[in-house]
Amino acid sequence: GDYYDLYGGEKFATLSELVEYYTAENGILQDKDGTIIELKYPLNCSDPTTERWYHGHLSGPNAEKLLTARDE
């Protein structure tokens, strides 16, 4: 199944669970070179999947044009 993990460590069902775990457990989250990464507080960001379809840099109108051209 799908899960989130960092470098083969603990596995989490959701990204929120992963962030909560590493925020509470100071000193456990490390970069590949061993540098400790301290999570202090969440940063708000917009969801990249707010459109009905999401395919990288392909916009909704461009997706419609491609599908119409292929008669799908």
Describe how the helices and strands are arranged.
Elements: H1 15-24, H2 60-69
Key features of this structure:
72 residues, mainly alpha, 2 helices, elongated
Largest sheet features: none
* Overall helicity: 25-40%
| Number of beta-strand segments | 0
Radius of gyration: 18 Å
How many discrete structural domains? 1
Provide the β-strand percentage band.
under 5%
The low-confidence runs, each spanning 5 or more residues with pLDDT under 50, are: none
Cα distance spanning the termini:
30 Å
Order of helices and strands: HH
Overall 3D shape: elongated
| Annotation field: number of helices | 2
Average predicted local confidence, pLDDT: 78
Q: Which class best fits the helix and strand makeup? A: mainly alpha
Verbal overview:
The structure is a single chain. The chain is an all-alpha fold. It has one domain. It is 28% helix and 0% strand. It has 2 helices and no strands. It is elongated, with a radius of gyration of 18 Å. It starts with 14 loop residues before the first helix and ends with a helix. The mean pLDDT is 78. One of its GO terms (molecular function) is receptor tyrosine kinase binding. Keywords: Receptor. One of its GO terms (biological process) is positive regulation of ERK1 and ERK2 cascade.
